[in-house]
Every structure is written in structure tokens, then in C-alpha cells.
Amino acid sequence: MSNADLTSSPNESRAGRASTPYPPAGWIDPAALLGMRSLELRARAVVEGVLSGIHRSPLHGYSVEFTEYRPYAPGDDLRYLDWKLYARSDRYHLKQFEDETNLRCHAVLDASRSMEFGSVGYSKFDYARTLVATLGYFLIHQRDAFGLLRFSKGIDSRLPARFRPGQFRRAIVQLEAPTTGDTTDLVGPLEETARTLHRRGLVIIVSDCLAPLDGVQTVLSRLAARRHEVVVFQVLDPAERELQMDSPALLVDLETGKEMYVDPRTARDQYNAKMRAHCERLHSDCRGLGIDYILQPTNVPLESALVAFLRSRESRVVRR
Length: 320
Known about the structure:
This protein has helices at residues 4-7, 30-34, 39-51, 83-89, 124-141, 167-175, 187-196, 216-225, 238-241, 264-288, 303-319; strands at residues 66-71, 93-97, 104-110, 145-151, 155-162, 202-207, 229-236, 249-252, 259-262, 292-297. The protein is an alpha/beta fold.
């Protein structure tokens, strides 16, 4: 799946949508959104702007697999009160169950130093972690289990997928941590993710994917073979998608510190061709495995990412 019509810049053609204003009314300019200090407020603004009025799943709690407890709230179904626990604690708690229609989602976030790049007033990492917070806020408020893995050269931190009070706050704490690592390795962290996620669920990978793709297709195929639903968000700065330099400059690699002198007059065509080939290969590998690929430039409102995610979910439901 590609959401080129949603992530194109205002100056790019969008087949079949020429008469639609861009961005749609109510969508927030990314610079204004990322100007908010609170990740939670950012996520809430995006979700409520796109999904106001959406209902929670009415099916939660009707399978036979017990998962955890939650405090009783007025109006809850008394059939699920645990009277033995009440006898021990003198407090009312309800058993919660794993519903097959609900998701167990793990967001896998690239927190390597290459994500610190930004030419639009904010970094790819700030945009990417706001995207993860947005998806987490939406999923948790739909009563889905949400977890988070941060990686650079390896897995830096892990929050198991849960649906329980405070889970979103725990995710925010991890998202607010700075980038780490001196290299980006896509294969190792994804291999560990495939090896450790034993229960089928949804895996959302958020990365610039600016690392060698050799081996990536294999590890993505392992995730797909374990029957995980996988969505890849490739987050790129506009200056990375196309070389926009007007004059020669000395560039510094954010991860290695290596310096390189670049003359755009001689490098532009070669760079742009290699970047297109890299993204097209990733897209092709994902498509061949039945994985949804979404190119998400950082100058595009984050609402487009949530809309693309919902379309991805809807298309999978239709295919079942």
C-alpha cells in the first residue's frame, strides 16, 4: 500500500484529487503541531481531529483467555467481578479478557542519531515519535494493547504491549528519551522483534530506513510468516528525498561524524536516482510480502499518517 496521494507536497500532482484543497480543513501544520511541548497533546490533537466520534469496540471481554484486571467503574458488567480478589483486597476489580477482534500492537521506533536530521525546523525523530504517540493514543483509546520498542544499533528499550491504566504514559516516557547509537541497523532489531513477539499482532515500524536493505526483506518475511500484520512508515525529510543544495557544502554524518564535500552540480542527479531506487526497493519488498508501506515526508500533516493507517486496517479487514 502506498499513500502517495496523502503524503505528496502541496506542489506535487495527486491523481484524482486535483480539486481537493491541501491540506484538508482542520489538519494541523506540522511546524505548529511539533511546536507543542507535550507529546500527549500532539497525539490528542491529531486523533481528535481525524477521528472525533469514533466508538470503542463493543466486543471487548468475550473470549475465554484472561489477561489482566482493572478497577470496577459504575456501569461495568457485574458478571466479570472477581469476588475472590475482592475478598482478599476489599476492592472491586473486573477480569479483562483478550478479544480476538482487538489488536496487540508493537511500535518499533528508529531512535538512531540519523533521525536527528531536519531541514524544516524540527527533526525526523521528533516527527516520528509524534507519529508513534498518535498511533498509540488512538489504539489505547480503542481498547487495544500497545507496546513500544526503540532501536538504534540494537533494541534500546522495550515496553510490552498492554492495555491497562498508565500504559500511554509509560510509552510517552520512552518516546521522550533522546536518540542513541552511532549506527543504524535495521536487520538486527527486527530479527529480535520477530524472535520475541510470540503472539500474533500488529507491528508498526517507523524509521527513515536509510540503512542497507540487504537482509531486511528476509527479516520482514519472518514477521509476515509469524502472521503478524506489518506496517512500515518511512519517515524522510524533504531535503533527503531530493538533494536541494544550491552551492557546494561540507556535510557531516550525524552518526559517524564523517565529513564529505558535496557539489550539487555533480551529485544531484546521482543522489536523487539512488534515493528513488532505495525507496522503490523497500516499497517493492514490502508489497511482495503483503506488508503495507507508507512514505511519510516530515513536511506533511501527521493526520495523513493516521488516515493511511486506518485505510491500511480497513483494507485488511476487507481482504479477510
